[in-house]
């Protein structure tokens, strides 16, 4: 899309090999099998002289996608596979000549993706994902002679296999098996003459990802995650003078990731995680005269986190995690600019990490 000077601009592109979307207001069981063996490419590009409002440029690419939204009880059985040699690519690009008051540029790519949303009942069953696909996402802002206005957000996310399940007064009980062999890369890049008052640049790549969140209902996730593909996340920022602006930059790369959060009831997280792939996260910032830079680069072979509400009565957070990592794990953070308020940065590289937390939600 090409525009001169305008107000708000929204551009969204989505590409899918196979897609399933279920929405019901009553209990409903779902069985699905998806197989992907080709190429999916999704690109969204906005070119503008000046934007007096907000420019939103988004792209999503999926080999297999399943979204299940159910009110009531549901038994699910979902199988997804993306064959070796297949490819999933997503790119979102914003090009500016002068300025934008605000902009959001986001790219998402996944070989296999499942999302379940439950209310006032319970979702239980099994989800199996297998991928040998190469997956890549790129989010780019090119504004070498332009300023980024009030705010600028640039984000890239890439996954071999991704499961997200949430329940609102609806329990979630899942048995999962995720296996990824393909390379997974996410890159977020910003080149600008001047920063936004708040500028955020983030990239995340994961071989296998499991995210379960429940409120006032039981949460239980068990299974296996095996990753042998290389994962790489890179955030690169090059900005001229950025005045009193704040720059937030982060990259996160994970072989296997599992997160279980709960408010109000008991939880159990039980996983065997094995990573043999290389994991790399890199964050770089180059700038002129400016404000503050907050940056991080985080790389994990295997990561598992369970969070529970400490203040909720009679609740427990239990689990059993077995982790094995033999892949290389590297994280790099670099920052340089002429002068400013300062830089706060960190680089974290961990082979295996398992965390169980109980916390008062008011803290």
Radius of gyration: 21 Å
The biggest beta sheet reads: 6 strands, parallel, barrel
Shape type = globular
Tally of DSSP helical segments: 0
Order of helices and strands: EEEEEEEEEEEEEEEE
Q: How much strand?
A: over 45%
Mean pLDDT rating? 92
- Estimated structural class: mainly beta
DSSP E strands, number: 16
Percent range for helical residues?
A: under 10%
N- and C-termini, Cα separation: 45 Å
Biggest sheet: strand arrangement: 5-6-8-11-9-7
Low-confidence stretches: none
Topology:
Blueprint (H helix, E strand, L loop, with lengths): L1 E5 L2 E16 L5 E7 L2 E44 L4 E45 L2 E14 L3 E30 L3 E11 L3 E18 L3 E9 L3 E33 L3 E9 L3 E31 L7 E9 L3 E11 L2 E18 L4
Description:
- The protein has 363 residues and is mostly beta strands.
- 0% of the residues lie in helices and 85% in strands.
- The protein has no helices and 16 strands.
- It is globular.
- The model has no long low-confidence stretch (mean pLDDT 92).
Summary, kept brief:
Helices cover 0% and strands 85% of the residues.
Q: What tags apply to this protein structure?
A:
globular; mainly beta; 0% helix; 363 residues
């Amino acid at each position: 899309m090409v525009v001169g000077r305008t107000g708000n601009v929204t551009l969204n592109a989505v590409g899918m090999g196979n897609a399933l979307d279920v929405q019901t207001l009553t209990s409903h069981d779902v069985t699905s099998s998806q197989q992907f063996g080709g190429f999916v490419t999704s690109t969204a590009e906005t070119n503008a002289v000046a934007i007096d409002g907000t420019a939103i440029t988004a792209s999503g690419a999926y080999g297999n996608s399943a979204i299940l939204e159910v009110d009531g009880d549901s038994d699910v059985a979902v199988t997804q596979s993306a064959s070796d040699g297949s490819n999933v690519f997503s790119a979102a690009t914003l090009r500016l000549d002068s300025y934008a008051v605000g902009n959001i540029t986001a790219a998402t790519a996944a070989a296999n993706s499942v999302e379940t949303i439950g209310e006032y009942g319970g979702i239980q069953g099994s989800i199996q994902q297998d991928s040998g696909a190469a997956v890549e996402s790129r989010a780019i802002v090119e504004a070498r002679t332009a300023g980024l206005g009030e705010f600028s957000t640039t984000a890239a996310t890439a996954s071999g296999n991704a499961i997200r399940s949430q329940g609102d007064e609806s329990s979630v009980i899942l048995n999962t098996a995720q296996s990824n062999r393909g390379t997974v890369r996410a890159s977020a890049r910003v080149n600008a003459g001047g920063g936004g008052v708040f500028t955020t640049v983030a990239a995340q790549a994961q071989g296998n990802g499991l995210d379960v969140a429940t409120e006032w209902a039981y949460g239980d996730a068990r299974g296996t995650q095996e990753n042998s593909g290389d994962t790489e996340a890179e955030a690169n920022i090059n900005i001229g003078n950025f005045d009193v602006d704040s720059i937030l930059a982060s990259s996160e790369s994970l072989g296997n990731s599992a997160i279980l959060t709960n408010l109000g009831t008991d939880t159990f997280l039980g996983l065997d995680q094995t990573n043999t792939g290389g994991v790399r996260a890199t964050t770089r910032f180059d700038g002129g005269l400016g404000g503050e830079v907050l940056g991080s680069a985080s790389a994990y072979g295997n990561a598992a986190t369970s969070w529970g509400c400490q203040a909720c009565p009679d609740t427990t957070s239990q689990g059993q995690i077995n982790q094995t990592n033999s892949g290389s794990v590297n994280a790099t953070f670099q920052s340089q600019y002429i002068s400013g308020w300062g830089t706060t940065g960190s680089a974290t590289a961990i082979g295996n990490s398992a965390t169980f937390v109980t916390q008062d939600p008011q803290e």
